[in-house]
Amino acid sequence: MTAKTYQPDFVFQTSWEVCNKVGGIYTVLSSIAKTLSTKLQADSLCFIGPDIWQEKPSPYFTQDDTLLPHWRQEASKAGIKVRIGRWRVPGEPIAVLVDFTPYYIIKDQLYGLAWENFSVDSLHAYGDYDEASMFSYAAGKFVETIVREFLQEKRIVYQAHEWMSGLGMLFLKNSLPNVATVFTTHATSIGRSITGNNKQLYTFFSGYNGDQMARELNMEAKHSIEKQSAHRADCFTTVSTFTANECTQLLEKTPDAVLPNGFEADFVPSGPAYNKIRREARKAFFQVAEALTGAPCPDDTLVLSTSGRNDFRCKGFDVYLESMARLNAQLKQQGKTSTKVLALIEVPCWCDGPREDLLKALQENNRRGLPEPNLTHHLINPNEDRILSLIKQLGLSNAVEDPVKVLLVPCYLEGADGLFNKPYYNLLAASDLCIYPSYYEPWGYTPHEAVAFHIPCITTDLSGFGQWVNQTLGHQGTIDDGVMVLHRDDENFDEVCNCICKAIHTYNAMPSTQRTAIRRKATALAHKADWKHFVRHYLEAYNIAINKTQS
After folding, report:
1. What torsion do the CA atoms of 106, 108, 110, 115 make, to the nearest 10 degrees?
2. Which residues, at least 6 apart from 378, have a Cβ–Cβ distance to it below 8 Å?
3. How far lies 298's CA from each of 60, 342, 366, 403, in Å?
4. 41 pLDDT exceeds 50?
């Protein structure tokens, strides 16, 4: 029997990262909001996130007490405290922030029911499991209340992102079977844990058993909720073919659909506006580098950058720094000390505000150099920070005679870091070439964002985005394509570092006209991954889920 095509009447999207800027899922949801809204009826898309702000003002959320007051009143009757308003992103979708703290007192009861009803094993839970699960339950309970009272006859889709949203989805589905559920894993908890524990994911991939590894890595609770959510959702999805294979192996469930991550063009300025933020960002970085190192940064300094979540091995920060050390040595050996390279690492660490001596040097226009010339902000644990430790171990001391200067910017770049005071996207525009040599990257928003901002980049075929680039181009991406996709596996660390150095030499030697052409190619490739092209995958997943509820 041929499945019918259904359009949802209302879509709820729930995630710990709604109005809560933590990682890549924030970018997924905040950037799809406008495009997805246009595919649905007016204001029939609602994002649900945790009210971690409580009485404090949120930089991402605007409360509006005139919006859906009957929802808030009905939730209050059910003992659910929510704030309703708009998410401050393109499209300004409805956002509901739920207070999940009241559910802590019944968490053991909820975990018992989860075991009885869904075989979810919470016995070995620790860390952020309780916090995420109570939020998830509160989100699901809120939707159950609203659907029962106001949306009973509608086709409702509830999309839960990651294991942190799974528990509420399971309880909601149990109470309201007609709600079509979609569960999206952006990276399996076990895959991330294997790589985070320095195990070889790829060499032994076909031999890994998810349940066994969960026991070995003390991940039983998170793996259990993730696996049961994947198996019990009406439609199970992930973000790339890369992660789909991982789900099949570790969760023993092949996704029903792949939802590649897109990007919203409205996030990217153009023309004179873009040129302005690029000039300002380069000037800011050059001033800081000169104050820290005592060495000049001429306008033609090649600016390299890497960034992302602080996941040392998975993000390839070890490869990036080793490449910078080799590049520095090569330029010295070749006598090219007049070549200037500024290599940035924009990664949130355990940070404690901007350095006072650096602020003073900038204020006084002092360019004599400072102690710790690699660091822009204070670290609370400088001796334990893996990035800073490797910088020192590799001898990247930012000596005046070093052609390559390395700066660690260890804070969230949201426009209020006390030093640059510019959001990440504005600072990203300073780069000439971005480098993301990932070991484990289910999608890869950092290279995706780079090309969207007209910056060519280097990534690997261990990222979903890198695999998409190769598939789209029909060949392995090169620097001339705007995205260079390096092959990476468990054995070729040295080869990858050498390829990165060679690509930097090649790019640095290019005339400006060739660089401009490559930037245009990068931008054109990014446009092929806009949400206007990828949103159809979400609608297809919703249709799969709704068809399940109609059968």
Report:
1. -170
2. 351, 352, 353, 354, 355
3. 37, 10, 17, 12
4. yes
